[in-house]
Amino acid sequence: xxxxxxxxxxxxxxxxxxxxxxxxxxxxxxxxxxxxxxxxxxxxxxxxxxxxxxxxxxxxxxxxxxxxxxxxxxxxxxxxxxxxxxxxxxxxxxxxxxxxxxxxxxxxxxxxxxxxxxxxxxxxxxxxxxxxxxxxxxxxxxxxxxxxxxxxxxxxxxxxxxxxxxxxxx
Length: 170
What we know:
- The structure is a single chain.
- It contains five helices and six strands.
- By secondary structure, it is α+β, with helices and mostly antiparallel strands.
- The strands form two sheets. Strands 1-3-2 form a three-stranded mixed beta sheet.
- The longest helix has 29 residues, at about 60-90.
- InterPro entries: SprT-like_domain (IPR006640), SprT_Zn_ribbon (IPR035240), Uncharacterised_SprT (IPR023483).
C-alpha cells in the first residue's frame, strides 16, 4: 500500500471529534470507554472500518484528506458507533437498531450506512460489462470472481447475465 501522510492538523481534528463523541457516549450510558486506536491504513473506496476486538478504527487517508470536515463529522461517529454497539450489545447486525440508536440518539448524527464521497481517486481498475439494457462497471474484485467462476452477475433491470465488453468484441 502506498503510504499517505495525513497532516497533523487533520489528525488532531479527528481526535477532537473522537473524544467529543466518546464523552457523549460516556455521559449518556454512564460508563467510561477507552479511546480506540486510530490508524490511517484503510484502502480502496471504504472510508473507514471498525475492528471490534482490537478496539481500533481504520481510516482511509486519501478520502479523509479530500473530504476533511464532512469525513470527520460522518465517518468518525459511524465507526465509533460500531465499536460502542459491540461493547454494549455484543455481536449485532453491523447497521442494526443498536448501531442506529447510538448514531441518532447518542451522537445525534444521521445513521447513514454509506458515505457520499467521490471515489475516483481511490478506485481501482474497473471492467465494463453489459447486458441487454445498459452498461455496468465492475471492480477488479468482482471481475476476478467472474473469471474464477465463483459468481455470475445478473442485471436487476432486464434480468440478463452480464458479459464482459471485451468478450463481446472477440
